[in-house]
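Chapter summary example.
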Amino acid sequence: MLDDKNSFNYDNRNLSDVFKELQEIRSNPQAQQAYVKQAKKSKKHKTTDIKPSKVKKTSNVFASNFRTKDGTSKPKSNDLKLSHILTGCGILVVSMALFFPKDLAFTESYASTESSQEVEAYELNRHRLNMQSIISENAGMDRVKEQATEERDVEFETTYTDNPTLPKGEEVVTQEGILGKDQVTVVKTYENGNFVEETILARTNLVAPTPKLISRGTSEFLAKHQVHIGDTMYLVKDDKLKSEANDTSTDVAEAKESIDVKLLELPSEEWAKVSFDGVEGYVKTSNLTSPTTTPNIVEKNRIQRILLKVNIGMELNKSSGLTLNDYKKIFTNIPNDKNKVFENNYQVFYNMEKKYNINGIFLASIAIHESAWGTSNIANDKNNLFGYGAYDESPYESSLDFDNYADGIETVAKSLVKYYLNPAGTKIYDGETAEGWYYNGPTVEGVNTRYASDENWHEKVYSYMEMLYNRLDS
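The structure predicted for these 474 residues follows.
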């Protein structure tokens, strides 16, 4: 037990006393500090400084020595009792416990040279690691790793190729891209059920991806006119189709201004291969246009297509293809039509064409030729522009009278369709069939054979037809 002078009394203690003393020291901080100081003091005295001659006899717990008459020392075998052995073992245990306390074991063993202040500061540290708190916090985090093998899509590449036969800036997909397939083995990490990361262990390609192919246009000519190969384009002036893409090659066809051609190829930005009514050849791209760059070109082309069919041998037992506005344009403000007979009846000629399937311009040209532009006496007095019914011996007297010009125009139209322009048996108007009594072909020359005694009548009539048609292009 500790005495009043903070010294340790090891005499006359049994094992029970030793353990009680140890318990008191461990539970009493002051006692621990006193013991530490005492232990340090005892270490300062080296055992080599103690002379054997001056050591007092003490009651040694491990051995009891006595000296004989001749001066030699012999152990007293009878004095080494069991109680002494037990007491010695207890002291040894207490000494180990005291010299290596739980809070100072490392300090006393490895840092004995530290000052007492450092030891005390270490003992009084209140910022120790709270292992229980650390374990609790980590136990609350659910971190899971799992290994999986799965199939994943592989992205395809996109490849661009310049194409001079497409408008500049335009793109056309020539091959759609297809995703590939990989088999992937991964380790996935989850925290609290949320995916955090993954590590790929192995990857095997199952299906290679198919690249996406895109053709990118480079033609400024096509872009300017907003057309593609195979579209219809139009000539801006009369031109000749060449056998090859150069100026010195031979001519294969001649095409009129505003005529339509089909764009077949574009060997260069200067030359284009086209088709005109089945004839293929090359023209300069500078002589081509489109509705985008020339908005009225389609209407001009329509007229040009009509004019191309105008010839002395054209068939007259079919529609001319002209619209009512075309008739109005043709017959308005003709200088020779002084009495405006034809200007006032242009719609009648149009209606006859639609009703009886006869060329209205041909019908009007006969009227112009026979009535001298509506100025003859028969025309003025009898509303008969054709001299219909007249004979050479007495033309005025024999010609028929009509209430108005329209009646006379319709009568002549029906007669031409039934007897001159169609062969016998042809279905015509109102469910009737043609008689064909004077049929010699559906041309102006064929009609001339039985209609007029003047052999040049068809040429004169056709000259008026050309004049009227050409007014469309004015």
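To summarize the output: The first strand starts at residue 65 and ends at 67.
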